Predict the structure.
Amino acid sequence: MLNYIIRRLVFLIPVLLGVTLIAFSLMHLIPGDPARSMLGEKATEEQLEALREELGLNDPLAVQYGRYLGQVVTGDLGKSVKSDISVAEELANRLPATFELTLFAMGVAIFVGVLAGVIAAVKQYSWFDNISMTGALFGVSMPIFWLGLMMIWLFSVKLGWLPPSGRLSHEIELTTITNLYLLDSILTWNWEAFWDSFKHLLMPGLALGTIPMAIIARMTRSSMLEVMRQDYIRTANAKGLSRFPVIFQHALKNAFLPVLTVIGLQFGYLLGGAVLTETIFSWPGVGRYVYLSILGRDYPVVQSTILVIAAIFVIVNLITDILYKYFDPRISYD
Amino acid sequence: MANQDKKNRQVTGTSLLEVRNLKTHFFTKAGVVKAVDGVTFDIKPGETLGIVGESGSGKSMTAMSIMRLIPSPPGKIVGGEIEFEGKNLLSMSEKELKKIRGNEISMIFQDPMTSLNPVFTIKKQMVETILTHQDMTKKEAIDRAVELLDLVGIPDARARLNNYPHEFSGGMRQRVMIAMALSCDPKLLIADEPTTALDVTIQAQILDLLNRLQEEMGMSIMMITHDLGVVAEVCDRVMVMYAGQPVEFTEAATLFDHPKHPYTWGLLNSIPKITKKKEGQKRLEAIPGLPPDLRNLEAGCHFAPRCKHAMDSCYSKNPSYEPCEPDHFVRCLLYEEKEEVLSND
Ligand SMILES: Nc1ncnc2c1ncn2[C@@H]1O[C@H](COP(=O)(O)OP(=O)(O)OP(=O)(O)O)[C@@H](O)[C@H]1O
Ligand SMILES: [Mg+2]
């Protein structure tokens, strides 16, 4: 097992190298002069030259790539052309925000999705099955921006229950430790901040979790239906076990494997791809950072953030593969 | 033929299980499948009852009806009685049934490769069975599991507990299934074709094991099989089923020596081991034709279209299931007519 993890980690190196190459080329594949596209039409020739010099754009590509690689390896992700703030510093603040949002969204999606899928399968063709699976069909095809805007309109504008943007109200004090606000407020026993950050998290979390929830529910249902027909379920019933352990242990542990694949993919995807949700709810996370950087043509930021997101994606996949072993002992990693 | 004499266990008179006129039907879109349609038999304490019949004749569904595990919908027990130690299984609540399943009546299945849960260790699967029915600590349950694995002949039992099913061979898995089924000292073990999926040598080992365990533990066994060789090996009495109905029911020795029903004749003729006894290497004779579609059964004897001895009346008159001799039930007009002839005299 440990061998396997080490092997996989080693295998990450070429993958990440490939990602650096793609991220690097991004800046150079854009037609025209990167310096000009960053600084805009009004920039003077001196300004452009200064930026080129600063970014080393005058050197041969190979040299540039080598330098970039050297920086990345030492943890230097460059800095924003616009704000001069280092990307690493910015990400240290923003990654936890995205992480919190994703964890919340996936937590709700997994809990509700799996539960709904199991009940729908056990009570196949019941009203619950019909309603939840029709709901899931809508969920999968729901445009997030529309859902998000509708939520803001209803819960913030009309009802005034939930804040439309941000992570925490200005007047609330919170000592940060992990930068995951829910966790920090629990750790510092700050219930006011907990409640406030929870209210901020609720809408973006649900908006972001809708699609994965729907996918997980449908996947769980079909997988459970398949498993419930298996011989070992008949054995479990014939042993006199109660319904609960038969369904939630014997069946679900088997049915969970394909669901786990979906969860892993969705998780990685959300971690990097919460762009839309973070933008609609002004959530100060990585997605919004990427979005703003692309708008502002802040290429060093885009380049490094993509690299980080890709790395996270790959690591989440690795964790998924390891969890597989827990759910299916037949998988051998040797 | 049947080696009853090898057995020294006690078969007593009163029935442990009594099934009377059991009817289990499946209500499908294509029609009502009468999978079990009027099955009557009993099992005595310590006895091994064989149930034989072609594929689809309703053997498994009879067993599943006794366990009250018929998939519903589409299945439903629509009639009859099942009494276990005088208690009516058909009127029991799910809660009461759970105390019977795996505890007083347990079951093993045809395919040991798929009957154990692949994602749990043997330990988990055995211990949960024991703890469901017995008041024990987890440690005691583990000890009991080791004892049981020893009993069914799994070497190095304590270490093997931590293995997953895929780490055992087919024969070993069936032993694990047997150990699990016997973990609460059941009074009745239902074995649904326990050797069909195994190699011939392993088959014999499993049958020997069941024989030995029955001698030691004294439970009754309901042995479902389509193999008359298995019947000869282990059964005291046999019920032959055809199209959801019993057609003949008697002592195993009697069935081999004086079979009454033409379907039983056909079955015996299709088994080389049995037939070569007298006539030497007689050619294997499969019963021509196919079993009827259980959705639209016609009037008369269901076997008539395949029966060499069918008379005109067989196609119109339902034969009744009567003893033609004491303790020898048969469902065939050949014997009813005879009786009529006799009574006319
Ligand atoms: N879920 C179901 N829906 C409809 N019909 C069913 C269902 N389950 C079983 N049947 C029918 O019940 C009949 C009896 O099946 P059963 O499994 O008892 O046969 P069997 O004698 O055990 O055969 P085999 O030797 O193949 O195991 C079959 O004809 C089958 O088509
Ligand atoms: Mg069967």
The mean pLDDT of chain A is 87. The longest helix of chain A spans residues 191-228. Residues 65 and 238 of chain A are 65 Å apart (CA to CA). Chain A is about 75% helix and 0% strand.
